[in-house]
Design brief:
By secondary structure, the protein is mainly beta. It folds into two domains: 55 residues, no CATH class; 205 residues, Porin (Beta Barrel). Helix content is 10%, strand content 53%. The chain contains one helix and 16 strands. The strands form three sheets. An eight-stranded antiparallel barrel has the order 6-7-8-11-12-14-15-16. A five-stranded mixed beta sheet has the order 2-1-4-5-3, with no helix packed on it. A two-stranded antiparallel sheet has the order 9-10. Strand 12 and strand 13 form a beta hairpin.
């Protein structure tokens, strides 16, 4: 019931922000009353011409903004064929403004490494947690964000999304439901698949630095910050020739609230990421004290 309540609360927040975003967009549309014109722009330095559709505030007054390096241009407008020198700036007309709304971005797909008291080698107490490295993975994405753009190179925002960690176990062990501390037993059934999964509501706070746009690749971006997460559910999935596919749900003593740090680096819409959680994977389980989660991989839609 706890994870259902958290999910409902999160979805309510998404719908609320969506309504505010729609209202904001509608107000902006109603506020735009400037004429739209098609002009031919000529680069004073190279003579290159291109036709663009722009909004000219107050007829020919003000600044025309397009994404290009700051230069002077001559342009012809309408039937007048008037040539004027204009300054073109490569920036949003507002230097700083709030950012918020629904998104589908920062899609993570990476590998998971279990860290046992600072070592990638599992201790004797955790030998049964031996896993298949190539099939122990992390997947997640953000669906909501709110923050502030201070300038064209720096943003600070809190986002919310979902995060799954899939641990593909080598041993034929069955975790007991509704037991504390974490308890399991070895079975006589040979599993072709034995996967333990945790699902979290993730809340990363991003300090993001961005370069200018480069032709053909976009911006270089670097972000880092803390990340918290609330447990939504735990799942164990078995697959065997004797019993077929079986699925069981429980919290399996996963930490109810985990916290850690992340770093991201990308070019355009693609990048890499790494995350490390400072508290243990399982709680109220003394034998698993010090067993933590380190994740790294590829990221899309940054």
């Amino acid at each position: 019931m706890k994870y259902i309540s958290l999910t409902m609360l999160f979805c309510t927040a998404i719908l609320s922000v969506a309504a505010q975003e729609k209202k904001r967009v509608d107000s902006l549309r109603n506020a735009v009353r400037t004429p739209i014109d098609t002009v031919i722009m000529e680069d004073v330095d190279t003579g290159e011409k291109r036709k663009v559709r722009i909004i000219i505030p107050g007829k020919d007054e003000g600044m025309i903004t397009i994404e290009k390096t700051d230069k002077s241009y001559e342009y012809e407008s309408g039937d007048k064929h008037e040539k004027k020198q204009i300054s073109v700036e490569n920036d949003h007309p507002r230097k700083a403004y709030p950012i918020y709304g629904i998104t589908f971005s920062r899609i993570d797909l990476g590998l998971v490494k279990l860290v046992d008291n600072g070592s990638f080698t599992l201790s004797d107490d955790n030998r049964d947690f031996r896993y298949r490295p190539g099939k122990t993975v992390n997947f997640g994405f953000d669906v909501l964000q709110a923050g502030y753009r201070f300038n064209d190179n720096f943003r600070l925002f809190l986002s919310g999304g979902f995060d799954w960690t899939y641990i593909r176990l080598r041993e034929d062990i069955d975790f007991m439901e509704n037991t504390t501390p974490l308890t399991w037993e070895h079975t006589d059934v040979s599993f072709s698949k034995n996967r333990l999964t945790s699902t979290y509501l993730r809340l990363p706070l991003s300090f993001e630095f961005r370069t200018k746009r480069y032709s053909g690749i976009g911006r270089l971006k670097f972000a880092f910050g803390p990340e918290g997460g609330f447990l939504l559910k735990g799942t164990q999935v078995f697959k065997s020739s004797e019993l077929g596919k079986q699925k069981f749900k429980d919290d399996y003593n996963f930490t109810q609230f985990r916290y850690g740090a992340f770093a991201r680096f990308g070019v355009g819409d693609f990048g890499i990421y790494a995350k490390y959680y400072f508290n243990d994977i399982f709680e109220n389980s003394p034998n698993q004290a010090g067993l933590r989660n380190f994740t790294f991989g590829l990221m899309f839609g940054i």
